[in-house]
Design brief:
This protein has 5 helices and no strands. It has one domain. It starts with a helix and ends in a 5-residue tail after the last helix. The longest helix is centred in the middle third of the chain and has 33 residues. By secondary structure, the chain is mainly alpha-helical. The relative contact order is 0.17. The chain is elongated, with a radius of gyration of 17 Å.
């Protein structure tokens, strides 16, 4: 039953990210609020981590420590891979469409390694918080 909280909580966060993304493009928040992109990456890592961990509980309903550790490492790794793919998409989109986007000036396009590193760090912090929630909810009082 507790995996439903992870699944639906994660889905709620991802829906909120989608809604915020629409608003952000409508009102230029990505370009006007310096920390907005970092918050979106954090929420994306959190939501995706919660969903994947909830699905993992379906696979390991009563896991021992080694299975739990495998699940956590696998989910964290998967979220980082998804973050890297997103960064490649963002980079490609900025390079191909940057001249056609009115709101983006050359200084607002993908800003290189520092931008990518902070985005991935935000993804990692988000999925780490998801892992903490996972541990608190599912195995708070277990010693396995």
């Amino acid at each position: 039953m507790r995996h439903y909280f992870l699944l639906f909580g994660g889905l709620a966060v991802l829906i909120a990210v989608g809604y915020l993304n629409v608003l952000a493009f409508r009102f230029s928040w990505y370009w006007l609020i310096w920390w907005f992109d970092l918050m979106m990456h954090f929420l994306g890592g959190l939501g995706l981590g919660l969903v994947l961990l909830g699905l993992g509980v379906l696979r390991f309903p009563t896991p021992v420590w080694s299975e739990r550790r495998q699940l956590l490492v696998g989910v964290i790794g998967l979220v980082i891979i998804i973050g890297l793919v997103w960064e490649m998409f963002e980079f490609t989109t900025d390079r191909r469409l940057g001249n056609h986007l009115v709101v983006k000036t050359p200084d607002k396009l993908q800003q290189g390694a520092a931008d990518t590193a902070t985005d991935l760090l935000s993804d990692l912090i988000g999925v780490t918080v998801a892992a903490g929630v996972f541990n608190l909810i599912l195995w708070k009082n277990k010693t396995t």
